[in-house]
Amino acid sequence: MISGFWATEIDPLVPDIVDCGDTQHRYGSRVAPHLHRHWELYYQVAGKSINYSTGGGKSTLKQGSVYCVGPDINHWHEHISRQPAHTLFVGFDLAAVAARHPEWDVFRHFAPIFSVDGVHQLERSMSRVLEEATIVLKQQSGGLRLALDMLVLDVIRASSDPIGDRSSIVRHPAVSRAIHLLETRFREPWSLNEIAEYVEMSRAHFATMFQQSTGIPLHKFLIKVRISHAEQLLRNSAQSCESIARECGFMRIQHFSRAFKLQTGITPIRFRQKHRV
């Protein structure tokens, strides 16, 4: 493992969450065969991995893929991209969630092993669980349980009702599609022209509509999303500021530092000193 963390025994009041973490692995590295007594959910932030399981099961995960494996199933991972394989994971008791929400029919949606591609929206759900689990917050037990429940619900929705097929009753569908794209693929160097083409609108019309809906221009919205993700990494990881800048889509550390201070009022280094637990 290059960097990251693995948290266990998170909150005795919420035994539903067994462990969670954020890891990066080098090209060619492997995680040996192992099994869990609980459900384990993996989200691929970057890079590419192959997940194997007993009986010949094999799933290739790329950016935006999720992989879930149930209790007592032997499985292992191989990281196959030159880019470091960056993964978020959460281990949890699915039966506890099912008991709280019998109307969700959870076990009908969670096969013993399954994977779904192109579910970038789940990165936010996974990150919320990690944040609630690793940062000291008020009402932490309740927040952690709610974050887990929302993660399970979002997995159910993602596997049965793709987010791209939904429309918003508050915003124009084109703006909602753009926001979703920017919030889930914020590392990419999007331009206004590319987003307008993606939502199939003219550049000028879309720019006006987006700013009217969000209150800020598209490029500032993208920077805001990137800085928000950077704040999470500064709190929860040991990555250098240069590494965080690259992971959040900034090509130069100077641009990242300037944008970060403009949005938060302090430098990334000062933010880390102030907010690390």
Descriptive account of the structure:
With 277 residues, the chain is of the alpha+beta class. The chain is 44% helix and 21% strand. The strands form two sheets. The protein has a six-stranded antiparallel beta sheet, with helices on one face. A four-stranded antiparallel beta sheet has the order 3-8-5-6, with no helix packed on it. The model is unreliable at 162-170 (pLDDT under 50).
Beta strands, count: 10
Helix tally? 11
Strand arrangement in the largest pleated sheet: 1-2-9-4-7-10
Mean of residue pLDDT values? 87
Distance between the termini: 22 Å
- Spans of at least 5 consecutive residues whose pLDDT stays below 50 are 162-170
Structural class: alpha+beta
Order of helices and strands: EEEEEEEEEHHEHHHHHHHHH
Globally, the shape reads: globular
Instruction: Work out the radius of gyration.
Output: 19 Å
Task: Note the main sheet.
Answer: 6 strands, antiparallel
Q: What share of residues are in beta strands?
A: 15-25%
Helix content percent band: 40-55%
